[in-house]
Amino acid sequence: MNMGSSDVSNNVFSSQVYEFGSSSGMELGDLSRRVEGAVLCDGVNVNQEEDGNVFLSEDEDNISQTMEEDDEGCKFYKPNVDESIRPKVGDVFPTVEAAEKMYRKYASAAGFDVRLSNKKTNKFGITTARFFVCNKEGHPTPKLYDSLNAKSGERRRRNSNLKRAGCCACMKVHYVKSIGRYEVYKFNEEHSHMLFSGDEMSLSRSNRDLTFGDQCNVFNACVTKVGVAKSHRLRNISKGNVGFSGGTIRDYQNFKKDMNTFVGNKDAKMLINVMVNRQKISPQFFFEYKCDETELLAIFWADEVARMNYREFGDAISFDATYRTQKHAMIFVPFVAVDNHKRSVVVGSALIRKENAVYFTWVLKAFVRAHGSPPKLVITDQCPAMKQAIPIAFPNTIHRLCLWHITKNVKKQVSVHLVKNTSFVADWNKMIWNMHLAPAEFDNKWQEFLDLYGLTGDSWFNQMYDIRESWIPAFFKDTPMSGLMKTTSRSESINAFFNVFAAFWDDLVSFLRSFDIAIESQRNSHCVEEVKTKYTAPRMRSPSKLELHASRVYTRKVFFEVQKELIKAVWCCGWDEISRVDGKHVYVVTHKNKSSEVIAKYTVVQDKESMTVDCSCNLFVRNGILCRHALKVLLNDHVDRIPDKYILRRWRRDLIPQQWLPARVRYGEVDVEKERLMARAFAAVDRMIGRVRNEKDVLQRVVEKLEKMDEELDEVVPLKSSRERKKEAIREFVGVPESDDNDVLPPSGICNKGSGRGKRLKGVRETKEEEAKKPKRLCRTCNDFVWHDSRNCPMR
Questions:
Q1: pLDDT in tens, 705-739
Q2: Higher-confidence residue: 109 or 38?
Q3: What DSSP state is assigned to residue 725?
Q4: Where is the composition biased (Basic and acidic residues) (predicted)?
Q5: DSSP code, position 153
Q6: Which DSSP state fits 169?
C-alpha cells in the first residue's frame, strides 16, 4: 500500500507504522527516564526507534494495535494478535457455529466486538453463507430532531451514544458442497476505529454477556426483594472485583426487564395455567377462579399440605387482607391457623379485586368447597365487608374480632400524652385480658376505666362497649379454642411475612413464585420444630411422672405451656374446700398471684371412674390443655398420666409429614435430577477452588483443564446464540410456558384502601393527557414510534 508522507514532529501521522499499547505497569522513575527522546503524537508521548516505528510499552495481557494511513489520509487500525488465532481466507470449519466461535475468539484477542450480519439459506433451511462483522459496522441513522432549533411540542430525541463507525472489518464464510464444510472466502482485519485495550475489553459487549450464573443471581434477587443493584454488587464481590463482573448494573436491569417482558400482560392467564397444571398432577390441589368477560376478578387456592393442615388445625382460623403484594393491586387474603407447634400455617389463599362483601362471600364459599366444612371459630378485624360475608358463607361459625387490632386502634383514639405519660395502656391490657373477670365484673371495671381517664361519653369507646361480646375474652370463656385470640396478630404477622418475599411491582406469576418460596420457608420451620421435638428432651422441673408423660406426648412448644401450668399448680394453687357430690369429688381451688394473694377460686369436679377432671375456669375448652387447677387435683391424687381425653390430637407430635418437597418440584415444574446434578457440579467446583486457592501452580492447572473441558463440550453441546440462551433461561426461571391465547387478563382500574403507591389519585382524562405528552420511541425492529424498543419488540 502506498502511504502519504508527513512530518511526525509536526504532530501529523506519517507513513510509518505506529503500535499502541499500555504502560500501566511503568513506574514513575522509569517514565521520567524515558521522556527524553520522545515525540508527541495526538497528545500521547511515544518513543521513536531508529526504524521510525512508534510504540508504547505494553504488558503481555494488553492488546496492541497498529495504526496506518491510506493515500486519502484515512486512518485504520490493525490488531496485533497471534497468527494461530488470526482467520485466513481458505480456512474451513465443520459448522457455522465453529466459525463463529473462532472469529469471536480472535475478536476477543484483537479488542473488538462481533455482530452477526447477513445470513443466506437454501430451500431446505441449510445455511449457505454467513457474514460476521465488527460491531461498529455500518453508519448511524440520521437524526430526525434538531436539538438546536427545537420547536414547542416537537418530539424530542433521546441522547444516546453512536456505536456505528463505518467499520469494514469482517469475515465471510460460505458452504462448499464438495467438501461439506464452510470456507472463509473473505477476511478484512482493518478497523476504522481504535480497538479496546486489555483492561477495557472487560466492558465490551461480548464480555458483558450475562452467564447463566449471573442470570440466576438476577432472578433470585427479584424473588427475594434484594434488588438488582445489590445483587450486582454481591456478584462482583463474589468474583473478586469489578474487573471480573461480566456485566454492568444496566445489563442486570435489562435482564430483569426482559423477564417482565416475557410475561407481559399475560400473567393472569399464566397464573391460571399453572394452577390447572398443578391440579392435574395432584388431585388434592384445589383452586377456583372468577372472571368477568375478560378480566380476572378473584382466585382461591389450597394445596394438599394446606388442606391437611386445615383437617388437623382448622378448628379456629383467622384471615386478613393485605395490599401491595403485586402491581395489579389485587388484595391478598391468607387464611391462617395455629399448628401443633404454636406456629402460623396457611390453610388457604386468595386474591380478590375488591374488598367488599360480594368478593369475600365468594372466597369464603370457595374455602368451604376446598375443605368440606367451615371452621368453628373465625377471627377477623373490624372490616364491615367481612362481617357481612361470614354469616352468609359460615352460618354456624362463631365470629370474634381481633383483640390485637382493637388494642392497636385504641391508641389512636386518645391523646399522645395519655398513651406515653400515663398508665393508660397498662390499665387497658390489664382490664381486657383478665380471664378471671365475670361479665358483670368487667362492666364495672370498664366504667371505672372510663371515669379514670375522662373518656365517658366518647363515641368510639361507647361503640366498642356495645359489641364487647365479640372481643372481650370474659364473654366467651366457654368458646372452644377462643384462647387462640391471644395470638390474633397472626394474620398481621403473616402478612408481614409474605411482604418480605412479595413486592408491589411483581406481576402475578412473580407473586406466585414469591408465595411458593414463603410457604416453603414456613414449612421448613415446621420441620425444624419437628426435629427439635423428636431429637431433644426438655429439662424436667419436678420429679412428677405427670410432667414426664406430658413431655412425651406433646410437642415442645405445647409441653412448655403444660409444664408452666404444672409448676403453678404446685406453688400458686391451694385447697379451699373439698366435698363429694353424686360420687364425684368436688374441689374448690384457689388461684394465687406471684405475691401469694388469692385472686380467684375455681371449682374442679373429678370423676375417678371415668377419668374426668373438669374446671370452671374453662382453660381446657379455650386452649386445649389442662389448667393448673385440674393438674393440682391430679397431682394430689398421684396420677402418673394425663387422661387421653385431655390430650388433644392437634397438640400431639408427628401430625404432618415432614418430607414435603417444594411446590415446583412436586408439580413437575422443574427437572429434579437436573437440579441435583447442577448442584453437585457447583459444589464440586467450589470444593476444588477452596482446596487449591492458595496453590497458584495447581490452580493454573485446574483452570486449564476446565477450559479444555469447555472446548470439548462444543462438540457435544453446540453453543447457542446469546438471544436463545437468554430466552431459554427466562422460560426456566419463570417456570410457566408462554400462552398462545390470552383470554384472561389481569384486573385494571383497582383502587382499594391501602393499595396506593404514594401518589395522588388521577382521573382517566388526566392520565390520558400525561400519556399523550410522553414521547414515544422509534423501534428499529418494527420501525414505528411505540412504547417499546428493539430489545423487547414483539416482532423480534
A1: 998 998 888 778 877 878 888 888 888 888 777 77
A2: 109
A3: H
A4: 763-773
A5: T
A6: -
